[in-house]
Amino acid sequence: MVPSPAPVDPAQPASAWPEEWRGLVDDAAIFPPGDVPLHDATAAHTERRGAWWADLVGSFVLRDTDLPLVRGFGAPLSVVVTGGAGQLAGPLGVADRLGLQVAAVEIAVRDVDDPVGNVRRIDAALRAAEVDVPLFVELPGPATAAWLTAADEVAACGHRLKLRLGNVDHDLVPDSATVAGWVDAALDRETGFKATAGLHRAVRHDPEGGGAHGFLNVLAATRTLWDGGSVDDATAQLEQRDGAALVDGLADGGVAGARRWFTSFGSCSVTEPLDDLIALGLVEEPA
């Protein structure tokens, strides 16, 4: 049985952590390239609940097939559905029977020939399961006309988007123009979104093999678009490699405004985002 998370240290009340950074990072340690064994990952997640920065971390992300293995785990869970719409209800029923706290469900559209119909089937499956949790739908490919029509359906059903910003194969990492198009589409529909894969550092950088997006860049691009900027303006923000410039651009409530739409990102590391926030002076480590 997996232990429930320990209560947060009362010496570090929730209010001590800046509200705009609360729940920014979902703990996806079990996913590539981290690939931490499930038991080790849940144990580390539990141990961190007493840390001064615990509120940076939102849910623990796991596959639907992992649910029977985390009986007794008291942390909020984001459940990644590994199959199609027909596989949605069963795992949610398992979570309910085990008393697990499902905070969100994540599912990818698999029918590339009929993405709108696929979104409708996903919506119907969630409604049939009678589970009232946020649903994040991942749509494949760039923001083509078909992609945009499927995004219309996601918004019409009251769900959110999931944007895959990284890949273990660097050739499959979406470029900044593609990401800007996705974010623009989400904001145009007033639809919240989360990001996944590759977004564990604050600022765009160039690891061996290709470029990697930064979460401050995505926040800055989101704010730019919401303030009326163009997709080209947002693309430039996503390409920015000057951390200080990004911080300055997000001053005066920019982070909080962007977080209204960019809700969180899953990362196999939760300490790297923390280290970058400290290094950029966005949060202060207690003495």
What do these coordinates show?
The chain has 287 residues and is an alpha/beta fold. 36% of the residues lie in helices and 14% in strands. It has 10 helices and 8 strands. It has helices at residues 38-48, 89-97, 115-129, 145-156, 176-188, 215-226, 231-239, 243-249, 254-259, 271-279, and strands spanning 25-27, 57-63, 77-80, 102-108, 135-138, 160-164, 193-196, 262-267. It has an 8-stranded parallel beta barrel with strand order 1-2-3-4-5-6-7-8, surrounded by 5 helices. Strand 5, helix 4 and strand 6 form a beta-alpha-beta unit. Helix 3 runs parallel beside helix 4, helix 5 crosses helix 7 and helix 6 (215-226) packs antiparallel against helix 7. It is globular.
Strand order of the largest sheet: 1-2-3-4-5-6-7-8
What is the helical fraction, as a range of percent?
A: 25-40%
Give me the secondary-structure category. alpha/beta
Shape: globular
